[in-house]
Design goal:
The protein is α/β, with parallel strands linked by helices. It is built from 17 helices and 21 strands.
C-alpha cells in the first residue's frame, strides 16, 4: 500500500506499492464464467479492431495497451476475482500522482504479457469511485497492487518499471525461466532485457539444474534465462567460457558480465545474485528505492548535485570494486527532497548543499559521516573503517551555544560529555523535542524548578533537544523525559515522573540532593 504523501520517518523512505494482477479466466461453463468471458471478449474485440492499424504515436500505443487492462466496478469485481486463477489488480485514485505514474507501466506490462500468452489477467479499479468493491479487495491506499491466486490475495513486492512488473508476475505464475532456443531469440531477448541471469545446461535436468530452478522461483527481481547451446550462451554472455555447465549475471554497466564459480546450490546462487545484481554505483530513484532499501549490504550514500554525478560515479566505481559484495554505493540527488531529505534529516544536515558521503547500517541503526573531502584515499579509508569497525558512528549535534547567565543550560550533542557526564555537580536534565505535545507543559515546570533551586552550587538544570542532538549515552524512550544525574553515579541517571506536579518534583530533587550529601559525608569520613 502506498500513499502519495511523503513521511519523515526513515523506514518510510521505501516506496512500497502494493499491486494486484489478474490471470485469464478459467473455461468453466457456469453463468458467471460466461459473463466474465463476455467482459474479456469485449475488451479483446476492441483491441482487435485497432490491432491492424499501426499506431502513429506513443499516446496511441499507450491507449491500445490500456484497453488490455480490464476495468473493475461494483458489479463485475467479485465475478472476475472468483472466475480467474491469476489476477493482478491495480487500485488507484484519479487524483493520485503515484497512480498516474504507475498506470502507463501497468498497461505496458499488460500488453507484453498478452503477447507472450500469459495466463494472467490484469485489471484496475477506481477505488474512489467504487470504494466498497475496492475495500472488499483489501485496497486501502493509492496505488495498491495485489495478486489474486484462486481468489486469495497477496501483496505485490516487485519493482515498478514495466520490465520489473512483468518479471514478478511471470515468477508468481509458474514462468520463472525463459528458455532460448535460437540466436534470433537471444538477439530479441537482449533488446528487451538489461539485467538477467543466464544458465547453460547440457540437459534441463539433474541436481544442478534443479537448484537453478529453485533459485529462479525464490528470486523476485532477476529474469532467469536458460539454454543448452553454447553459441546462444555466448551471445547472451560474451565473456562465456565454453563448458557444459555455466551460470552468470549480466548488467548494463562497466562491470557487465560476472560469472558464477561456486557449487550449484540454491542459497549460494541467490547470494551470488544479491551480491552482483546492482551496478557498482546505484543512482537512487523512486523506481528502484524499494530494492535499494531492502538490500542487506552496508550502504554508503553519496548526496550531491545531479551535475556532479558523472564525476562521482567514476570515483566511487573504483571504491565499489574493492568493497564489492560488502558495501553498496548509492548516489542521491541532493535536490530530490523525497529521496534525500529524510536521510539528511537523520544527520541533521537537511539544509546542506555540499557533497556528503554517509553510511547507514540497517542492522544496528548506526550511521556514519565522512568528515573530509571524498578523495580516493579517504573513500577507501572510510569503507575499510566501516567493515572493520574502526569508523566512529556519527551523532548529530547543534553548535555549542552561549550559556552565560542562563538558569537552564542548553546542552547539545557535542557538549553532553562536558556539561552532564563530566560535570562535578548534580544535573537535572530535560529531554524534549519540538513536536512533542506534552513537552511545553513540562518545560514550564522545569523553569519554575530552576528558579526555585537557583543559588544551589551543587545542582544544575539543563535541557537538550533530542530531535537535533544525539549522544551514545543519551537515551529516552519517550518525550518529554526528565533525568537526574547524581554526582556519585553519572552513568545511571534517575528517571523522574513527568506527570508529577512541580511541588512533587521539588520534593524528589531535595530527596536526591540529601542522599548525595549523605554519601559525600561518608566518603569524607572514610578518607579521614
Amino acid at each position: 500500500m502506498f500513499t502519495s504523501k511523503p513521511t519523515s520517518r526513515f523506514i518510510s523512505l521505501a516506496l512500497i506499492l502494493l499491486i494486484s494482477f489478474n490471470f485469464l479466466i478459467n473455461s468453466t461453463a457456469n453463468e458467471d464464467s460466461d459473463d466474465i468471458e463476455d467482459l474479456i471478449a469485449l475488451d479483446q474485440e476492441q483491441d482487435d479492431e485497432t490491432s491492424s492499424q499501426k499506431p502513429s504515436s506513443e499516446a496511441e500505443v499507450l491507449t491500445k495497451a490500456q484497453r488490455i487492462v480490464l476495468e473493475l466496478n461494483n458489479d463485475n469485481t467479485q465475478k472476475v476475482i472468483s472466475g480467474n486463477e491469476y489476477i493482478l489488480v491495480l487500485g488507484y485514485a484519479p487524483w493520485c500522482v503515484r497512480s498516474a505514474e504507475l498506470m502507463p507501466r501497468f498497461a505496458e506490462a499488460a500488453s507484453f504479457l498478452k503477447e507472450i500468452r500469459s495466463p494472467l489477467l490484469m485489471a484496475k479499479i477506481d477505488a474512489e469511485r467504487y470504494p466498497k468493491a475496492a475495500s472488499n479487495l483489501g485496497i486501502k491506499g493509492y496505488p495498491t497492487l495485489l495478486l489474486f491466486v484462486n481468489g486469495t490475495s497477496q501483496p505485490y513486492t516487485g519493482g515498478f518499471s514495466t520490465e520489473e512488473i512483468v518479471l514478478w508476475v511471470r515468477k508468481k505464475t509458474g514462468m520463472p525461466i525463459i528458455r532460448i532456443n535460437s540466436i534470433n531469440e537471444a538477439d530479441n531477448f537482449l533488446k528487451k532485457h538489461s539485467v538477467f541471469a543466464v544458465g547453460l545446461f547440457d540437459k534441463y535436468e539433474g541436481p544442478d539444474y534443479d537448484e537453478f530452478v529453485k533459485a529462479s522461483t525464490t528470486d523476485n527481481e532477476i529474469q532467469f534465462v536458460e539454454t543448452n547451446n553454447p553459441q546462444i550462451a555466448s551471445v547472451l554472455f560474451p565473456d562465456f567460457k565454453f563448458s557444459k555447465l555455466f551460470l552468470g549475471i549480466v548488467k548494463s554497466e562497466p562491470e557487465r558480465y560476472t560469472s558464477y564459480e561456486d557449487a550449484f546450490e540454491e542459497d549460494k546462487i541467490l547470494q551470488f545474485l544479491n551480491d552482483n545484481k546492482f551496478p557498482l554505483v546505484t543512482i537512487l530513484t523512486e523506481l528502484n528505492s524499494v530494492k535499494v532499501y531492502a538490500s542487506d549490504k552496508l550502504q554508503v550514500y553519496v548526496f550531491a548535485e545531479a551535475d556532479n554525478f558523472k564525476k562521482l560515479i567514476e570515483l566511487f566505481q573504483d571504491a565499489a570494486r574493492k568493497f564489492k559484495s560488502k558495501i553498496m554505493f548509492v548516489l542521491v540527488d541532493i535536490k530530490e527532497d523525497n529521496l534525500a531529505k529524510p536521510f539528511l534529516t537523520l544527520f541533521g544536515l537537511e539544509d546542506s548543499e555540499e557533497t556528503l558521503v554517509t553510511a547507514f547500517d540497517y542492522k544496528t541503526g548506526a550511521k556514519y559521516l565522512l568528515e573530509s573531502d571524498p578523495t580516493p584515499g579517504q573513500i577507501d579509508e572510510f569503507g575499510s573503517g566501516l567493515l572493520n569497525g574502526t569508523c566512529p558512528p556519527f551523532y548529530k549535534s547543534q553548535e555549542i551555544p552561549e550559556n552565560k547567565g542562563a538558569d537552564i543550560l542548553t546542552v547539545v550533542g557535542k557538549s553532553f560529555d562536558e556539561l552532564v557526564l563530566s560535570s562535578s555537580k548534580n544535573i537535572f536534565l530535560e529531554i524534549y523535542t519540538p513536536w512533542c505535545l506534552n513537552c511545553e507543559t513540562t518545560s514550564k515546570q522545569v523553569e519554575k524548578l530552576a528558579k526555585h533551586f537557583k543559588g544551589l552550587d551543587n545542582l544544575v538544570f539543563a535541557k537538550i533537544d533530542a530531535s537535533v542532538n544525539e549522544h551514545p549515552k543519551l537515551e529516552a524512550d519517550d518525550y518529554p523525559t526528565l533525568l537526574f544525574y547524581p554526582i556519585s553515579n553519572k552513568s545511571n541517571p534517575i528517571k523522574l515522573p513527568t506527570k508529577s506536579s512541580s511541588k512533587e518534583l521539588a520534593i524528589l530533587i531535595n530527596k536526591y540532593l540529601k542522599e548525595e550529601a549523605h554519601d559525600e559525608q561518608h566518603v569524607e569520613k572514610d578518607e579521614l
